[in-house]
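hey so i finally got around to running the thing on that chain from the lab meeting. sorry it took forever, my laptop kept dying and i had to restart like 3 times. anyway pasting the input first so we r on the same page abt which one it is
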Amino acid sequence: MSSTRPSEPRSLQALAELTDALRQNRATVGVIGLGYVGLPLVRAFVQAGFRTLAFDLDQQKVDKLQAGRSYIRHIESEWIARAIDAGQLQPTTDMSRLTEADAILICVPTPLTKSRDPDLSFVENTARQIAATLRPQQLVVLESTTYPGTTRDVVLPILEQSGLQVERDFFLAYSPEREDPGNPRYGVGSIPKVVGGVGPVSSALGQALYARIVVDVVPASSAEVAEACKILENTYRAVNIALVNELKVLFDRIGIDVWEVIEAAKTKPFGFQAFYPGPGLGGHCLPIDPFYLSWLARKHAMPTRFIELAGEVNRRMPGYVIDRLAAALNDLGLPVRGSKVLVLGLAYKKDVDDQRESSSYVLMELLLERGAELSYNDPYIPVLPKTREHDLPLLESQPLTADLLAAQDAVLIATDHSSYDYDFIVAHARLVVDTRNATAGVRRGREKIRKA
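ok and heres what got predicted. didnt touch it at all, straight out
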């Protein structure tokens, strides 16, 4: 393990100079990875008055930004165009420009391999690109969700291949992203930021950096604590969602509506937090992060049966939904094979254009395997994106008309977008299978609705 003790007085001088540059907005910030985490972070630093370099290897993303166009729904194109014109936002694929940044933030994917082990290839490749241009007095912060020890044991050795020493020449910290796409109440600036460095100077610099853009900075005693914090947050959610998913299946069998049960339970003012069932987990965190923790536990010869059971429950939910849809079709005298099924919602949650790890992909695969004639609608995703994990045909979102609804044997609500008129949907559909309780307020045609 590399030494993380500051070298007096060099590191303290760097601390003073970089802290002063941050406080006076003279520092340049570089963000690597311009997805649903990186681009909102770019906006936060630009709005705080920093010159910001936005790095991505995807030339199409960079071209769109340079043209003043957004590819994320809650980031306005008009704002991007203004920031580009003002020179505050500079999108680029040129990684040699990393040397211009005083602070470099890594926001790249951390997916799982097919065997559900951590895939750190994006983090490692990014660290190598930074190491190629690393200079004294630069701060590097990893934001990508990962297991405790990644910053110190994976990123740090790669950066030190530059010949520079951490806590003396450059500084390294971890600060987990807490982005919640589509949540109008909480954006980057209104969510407290946990920061932990590989040493005291790195910690201090990381805290000074984020203090410029967020409502509150929460110091962690180490990078490992900050990394574990993120894993805990998402594992907590995944486990509780698994609980209500399992209860949904149980309560359905005995004729109890789990949604009504949750509404009743959440009236208790203490000791209960409401979580809601669905067709499976989606997004860039919940389906992945608990497996980072269970992988780490296996490395230390410790079973994590609770976490693994939660993952198993959540992975079973798409199959349960399709079984419920098949049973509903059977009540109409129809098999799944040959039936026309319209899937409403491709995004992993309501009112966003983010389809990463969406359970809708799995639902659509299962429907095709059973021979259904498939179509979909999502107002935010006009074309079904190709993914490495799912082999689906090229489909386009169909206009949600009365004729389209009437032509279906079943409509499957996978994502409860607020823009959907559920009274209209139920009125014109023959059968509606609702995985999100989206039709709770519909009064007419309830005999057509099946919960799943």
